[in-house]
Write a structure and sequence with these properties.
There is one protein chain. The protein is of the alpha/beta class and about 500 residues long. It has 2 domains: about 375 residues, Alkaline Phosphatase, subunit A (3-Layer(aba) Sandwich), CATH 3.40.720.10; about 90 residues, Arylsulfatase, C-terminal domain, CATH 3.30.1120. Helices cover about 30% and strands about 15% of the residues. It contains 14 helices and 16 strands. Strands 6-5-7-1-8-9-2-10 form an 8-stranded mixed sheet, with helices on both faces. Strands 12-13-14-15 form a 4-stranded antiparallel sheet, covered by helices on one side. α3 packs across α9, α7 packs parallel to α9 and α8 packs across α9. It is globular. The N terminus and C terminus are likely disordered.
């Protein structure tokens, strides 16, 4: 039976408290948020979480790319730890965003597809009645930090519910640009985003998000703050500053480059991070600010090269969920280090709640594990990572669940009940299915996956009484294969 993880573990608890004290946070013996607020919470560490939309695992120079130019992300990596086996909680965006805010697996939240999802009414399986907004009764990391005296802001994409379920109802003092939509109407002002006032004509959205982030930091420099910056970039529509795209146009085909405008969008995300780092440095805040940088899912294969990983966003395979994952926390992370410890999105809020001393919501399960020990160069006491996607995706994925334990990753497909097993150390591209050659390991991982699904109350697909292969094929279903190694232009969420 999978054991639910909580961040305040005895193995790191005393260390986390010591870090908070060294960072000017909690006084010894004073772990109560109320007591901290009473005596002034301004010394607690600040937290910045940068979530990029659809960034592939190799779309950074610090991740090994010779095509993308990302000097500011490289600067962040040089100041902290880069996890080489970093994962998103899902192969599409909304579930990962919910996991990042709650520390829970999407399967537990029943938010398992991008909102509002993709309909295959005549497919073999009927998808479950899943949750299409983040419930208000689920306590977010923003709510916990706000109750402890933090100023909180969400600047950028939300995609977890419409009016009444916006960032303002989920613990954020500010919501700048967040709506129920999965992509902006335009990356250039006028943006036509109801929660973001238009800037001067032609202003670029990622630049504006960076400017709003800088404003928020400056306004709250004298108190602890939690800045959640979920960029709309690099999601479609692919729109970039022409002068930046021009610098990449002559290098297409070089070092895996596929799309000059996409590369320019990556560079704009990097510029935004540079603005934040420069501001923190100028205000003398960098030494007490933790920064997390990751993506909500893998890269869209038609836009970027995910090799040697298989497929991309929306798939059941590694490139759908392997993402950049960087943490820079002065006094905690050792500069310029890497870790091959497998980590996943829910670990981010678990780590924040742990090392800030705020702690999780007592009545709410926490699936993420605190990375405190791993950030110090140690390991992580966890047996496996899990994924659950009981849906059809326009790019080819059919309902599936997956588990990674050690070097091995097993994917179970629900349409025909078969499983595939890969050794990621020797076969990162998942080319050699070992399920038949290693039936004992396959059966053991299937059993662990089944136990986890039951533990989190995962919703499973069922037989579809309206299954009609001819009508499904006429609607395009036959063109999509669960083991597709290529993606089409359809493979994007709205």
């Amino acid at each position: 039976m999978h054991q639910r993880r909580r961040p305040l573990r005895c193995i790191v608890g005393l260390w986390a408290l010591a870090v908070a004290v060294r960072a000017g946070g909690l006084a010894a013996g004073d772990a109560s948020p109320d007591a901290e607020a009473d005596r002034g919470a301004g010394a607690r560490p600040n937290v910045v979480v940068v979530l990029v939309d659809d960034m592939g695992w190799k779309d950074l120079s610090c991740q090994g790319s010779d095509f993308y130019r990302t000097p500011h992300v490289d600067r962040l990596a040089a100041s902290g730890m880069r996890f080489t086996s970093g994962y998103s909680a899902c192969t599409v965006c909304s579930p990962t965003r919910a996991a990042l805010l709650t520390g829970q697996y999407p399967a537990r939240l029943h938010i398992t597809d991008w909102i509002a999802g993709h309909d295959r009414p005549f497919a073999k399986l009927k998808i479950p009645a899943w949750q299409k907004r983040l419930p208000l009764e689920t306590v977010t990391v923003a709510e916990r930090l706000k109750a402890a005296g933090y100023a909180t802001a969400s600047i950028g994409k939300w995609h977890l519910g419409a009016a009444g379920f916006s960032p303002r109802e989920q613990g954020f003092d500010e919501n700048v640009g967040g709506t129920d939509r999965g992509q902006p109407p335009s990356y250039f002002s006028p943006y036509r985003i109801p929660t973001l006032a238009d800037g001067p004509p032609g202003e670029y959205l990622t630049d504006r998000e960076a400017a709003e982030a800088v404003r928020f930091i400056r306004e709250h420099r004298d108190r602890p703050f939690f800045l959640y910056l979920p960029h709309h970039c690099v999601h479609t529509p692919i729109q970039a500053k022409p002068e930046v795209a021009a610098r990449y146009a002559g290098r297409l085909g070089e070092a895996g480059g596929k799309n000059a405008a996409y590369a320019a969008m990556v560079e704009s995300v990097d510029d935004a991070l540079g603005s934040i780092l420069d501001t923190l440095d100028a205000l003398g805040l960098r030494d007490r600010t933790a920064i997390f940088f990751t993506s909500d899912n893998g890269g869209l294969a038609q836009m970027t090269d995910n090799a040697p990983l298989r497929a991309g966003k929306g798939s059941a395979y590694e490139a759908g969920v392997r993402v950049p994952f960087l943490v820079s926390w002065p006094g905690v992370t050792r500069p310029g280090t890497t870790s091959d410890v497998p980590v996943i999105t829910p670990d981010i809020p678990a780590t924040i709640l742990d090392v800030t001393g705020v702690g999780p919501e007592p009545s709410q399960p926490l699936d993420g594990a605190s990375l405190a020990a791993a950030l110090r160069g140690g390991g992580l006491d966890r047996d496996a990572l899990y994924w659950h996607y009981p849906h059809y995706h326009p790019g080819g994925a059919t309902p599936h669940s997956a588990i990674r334990s050690g070097d091995f990753r097993l994917v179970h497909f629900y349409e025909d009940g078969h499983s595939e097993l890969y050794n990621l150390r020797s076969d990162p591209g998942e080319a050699a299915d070992l399920a038949d050659a290693d039936p004992v390991r396959t059966a053991a991982l299937e059993a662990r996956l089944d136990s986890w699904l039951a533990d989190v109350g995962a919703q499973l697909p069922t037989a579809n009484p309206d299954f009609d292969p001819d009508r499904d094929a006429a609607a395009g279903g036959a063109r999509r294969r669960p083991d597709a190694r290529r993606q089409t232009a359809e493979e994007t969420d709205p």
